[in-house]
Amino acid sequence: MEAVVSASHGAVQILLVKLGNVLATKYALLSGVRGEIQELKDELESMTACLLELADGDDHNEQTRTWMKQVREVAFDVEDCMDRFCHHLSEHHGDRKGLLEYLHRMFNMVRTLRVRHTVATDIQGLKSRAQKVSERRRRYDLGESAGRSSKVLDSSSYSHHDNLDRWLPAIHGDGSGLVGMGNMTHAVVRLLSEKRQAAAGPRVLSIVGFGGLGKTTLATTIYSTPKLGGIQCRAFIPVSQTYDFRSLLESVLKQLSTLADSDKDDDPLRNIKKWTISDLVDKIKQCLKRRYLIVLDDVWQAAAWDQLKVAFPHDNGEEGSILITTRSHEVAKNCCTSPNDPVYEMKRLQMDDSQQLFFKTVFESGKCPNDLLKVSNAILARCNGLPLAIVSIGRMLARRQNKTSAEWQTVCDRLGSELETNPTLEGMRRILSLSYNDLPYHLKACFLYLCAFPEDFVIRRGSLIRRWAAEGLIIGMYGRSMEEIAQIYLDEFVSRSIVIPGQIGSSGNIRSCKVHDIMLEVIIAKSVKEIFISFLGSSQYSTTAGHDKVRRLSIHPGGGKEKRTFSSKNIVHTRSLSILGSTEKPVPIKFADLTLLRVLDLEGCGWLRDQDMKDICKLPLLRYLSLRNTAICQLPDAVGKLRDLVTLDVRETKVVEFPKGITHLQSLNHLIVGRYAYYTRTRSVKHFLWSGGAKVPLGLGDMHALQRISHADISTEKSSRAMRELGKLRQLTRLCVINRKEAKFWEPFAESLNELSSSLRHLMVVDGSLEGTELEFLVGLKNAPVFLQSLHLGGRLRNRLRF
């Protein structure tokens, strides 16, 4: 339920900022409806407060869900109305002074009269809609108590039930122990048995990993293993997301007392409910004066450990061991009591172990018939080494009477819908959903957004961050850039083990990531249910039926006729369109009709041609445009009409020169071009191609918002002169420049580089000039960049070069 709350609140929050800007700025042309705009803003602020209150609940009924959807739709429609009007005004606004400016304003007053009348009518209608949405909520009395489901489960038993469901199949599946976890068990037992130097307090070992990897299963095996000898008392405590501190202490004490006093008639815990917290802690410490092992399973917050650790004595040397399982790397680090405390990271099962576990779950003999081997491997590829998924899907298939290749292939293709409807898989879906539900409020929409990318797609950090920003999903923090904030978001996802990190940069930052296939199915199902993103193509969720206004649309490659199962009528309100890796143009997509688009990602679309750019350049509100890895050869001068464009990505295309019109893009932050040759499957080793840069036109200095230019080719007189204007771009932090001809072309660039000494953070200079002086111009810099974080040089370097 948090999905729709987060999405709705995000939409309204973005709009409130825009309405505030409109009311506070020079748009006096709206004076006739300023009162309506203020009332609409007040109404939406009240709705935002309600949404935040609802976010604290675990579940909501259909009436509340419908109300939140209506709030979101009103917010989107108001934002569309305001953006269209403000863009229309900006087209007719010029930098004129005095009498000329006055005459121009009067001319625009007449010229925009019809538009002002239209927006006034629209605003009044939207204000009425917003008020009716609020009245409808009051009419049906959708208060906090009414909005939540009456079904409430005890959190500790809920978590414990899930954990039992996770470890029992794996332990008892073959009667001989865990499949594929023998080495992990030996490794953790060895870590618990190692001697420590000058240790104070109990040894703490954290097992960390993605939900469903088998952390609880591993901890349970270690808890009962005879290899960990000398343990005199032990306790296994499921902590869960929402825990009660007193209940946890009582559970520890009951388990310890049962073991210690099993031969006594007296009940040592008589009247335990009347004991204070201090009494419970003191009694636990008395029980733990021997060698002990405590397992704290499923710890979600470091605060839980901070509370519980006071009950474990710190004065019995190496007698105590505490084993913690968690999904969060941050929690694992915070639970360490000394630098010597290890963190053990769970790994996914290899294919051989995955097959063994799957076949033993499905077939009594543990052997797979030859005709099912191919489809079994396809199912296991979707499971991606996740034991919980392997066992759950295996149990589902084992119950089916007809074990045919066609039936199993259908299950593989429709795994997402099976997760939603099949009772056997409900536990797995619930466990994986816990990771999403535990995310901070502001991160939920960002995480859901990951399902816009197809299965097995390597999500690049830079592209993801720029798309988040264009969608308005990033909440500002004082003193931090959007990129820094987004990096914090991504690091949080990795820390919580809900995305798989890919390439790691030299600075330690994550360069790319992937979403586990099963987790992807979970968040796709959530997105479709809450109409956060609509899907078309090969996805089983390929439909826009019931989505009266599609706001975000992701078209996945493949799917045959499914690509054509939609009408152009219900996608005209689309704000974000992703068509990644498609070889055929989806019909009836017409870019010119999608006038509300803010984000257009066409990476890898083999059908895209230069003539398509004519329609794309008619999208007035576009903020993010990626043409990466397409057949585009030339950008039209009309690209300058995209006045709101923030990101233009033409990397891995044949574009070798930017048109003059690009200098009209006053909002452009990221200008990305260039081509690489990749030498590894993960693209971690690459080489910049000399033909990969693009020439920039004169007038570059007017693009004051630019933060990144890569890669600019200065191998001509005109593009070299354009480099003289770089010094005006005081926001520039990342710059990549290539010279393939004469060394003299470096001179204007060097002059500008002196003026960017305090702004540049990343610099790449590639020299292929014909003279032998090569990079000598860097020696004569008067003001070299002093805050560089990365420097890449290509060319001949002399000993006297100092940076």
UniProtKB/TrEMBL annotation:
<feature type="region of interest" description="Disordered">
    <location>
        <begin position="134"/>
        <end position="157"/>
    </location>
</feature>
<keyword id="KW-0611">Plant defense</keyword>
<dbReference type="InterPro" id="IPR041118">
    <property type="entry name" value="Rx_N"/>
</dbReference>
<dbReference type="InterPro" id="IPR036388">
    <property type="entry name" value="WH-like_DNA-bd_sf"/>
</dbReference>
<keyword id="KW-0547">Nucleotide-binding</keyword>
<keyword id="KW-0433">Leucine-rich repeat</keyword>
<dbReference type="Pfam" id="PF18052">
    <property type="entry name" value="Rx_N"/>
</dbReference>
<feature type="domain" description="Disease resistance N-terminal">
    <location>
        <begin position="11"/>
        <end position="94"/>
    </location>
</feature>
<dbReference type="InterPro" id="IPR055414">
    <property type="entry name" value="LRR_R13L4/SHOC2-like"/>
</dbReference>
<dbReference type="Pfam" id="PF23559">
    <property type="entry name" value="WHD_DRP"/>
</dbReference>
<dbReference type="Pfam" id="PF00931">
    <property type="entry name" value="NB-ARC"/>
</dbReference>
<dbReference type="Pfam" id="PF23598">
    <property type="entry name" value="LRR_14"/>
</dbReference>
<comment type="similarity">
    <text>Belongs to the disease resistance NB-LRR family.</text>
</comment>
<keyword id="KW-0677">Repeat</keyword>
<dbReference type="InterPro" id="IPR002182">
    <property type="entry name" value="NB-ARC"/>
</dbReference>
<dbReference type="GO" id="GO:0043531">
    <property type="term" value="F:ADP binding"/>
</dbReference>
<dbReference type="InterPro" id="IPR032675">
    <property type="entry name" value="LRR_dom_sf"/>
</dbReference>
<feature type="domain" description="Disease resistance R13L4/SHOC-2-like LRR">
    <location>
        <begin position="573"/>
        <end position="770"/>
    </location>
</feature>
<dbReference type="GO" id="GO:0002758">
    <property type="term" value="P:innate immune response-activating signaling pathway"/>
</dbReference>
<feature type="domain" description="NB-ARC">
    <location>
        <begin position="186"/>
        <end position="365"/>
    </location>
</feature>
<feature type="domain" description="Disease resistance protein winged helix">
    <location>
        <begin position="453"/>
        <end position="523"/>
    </location>
</feature>
<dbReference type="InterPro" id="IPR044974">
    <property type="entry name" value="Disease_R_plants"/>
</dbReference>
<keyword id="KW-0175">Coiled coil</keyword>
<dbReference type="GO" id="GO:0042742">
    <property type="term" value="P:defense response to bacterium"/>
</dbReference>
<dbReference type="InterPro" id="IPR042197">
    <property type="entry name" value="Apaf_helical"/>
</dbReference>
<dbReference type="GO" id="GO:0009626">
    <property type="term" value="P:plant-type hypersensitive response"/>
</dbReference>
<protein>
    <submittedName>
        <fullName>Uncharacterized protein</fullName>
    </submittedName>
</protein>
<dbReference type="InterPro" id="IPR038005">
    <property type="entry name" value="RX-like_CC"/>
</dbReference>
<dbReference type="InterPro" id="IPR027417">
    <property type="entry name" value="P-loop_NTPase"/>
</dbReference>
<dbReference type="InterPro" id="IPR058922">
    <property type="entry name" value="WHD_DRP"/>
</dbReference>
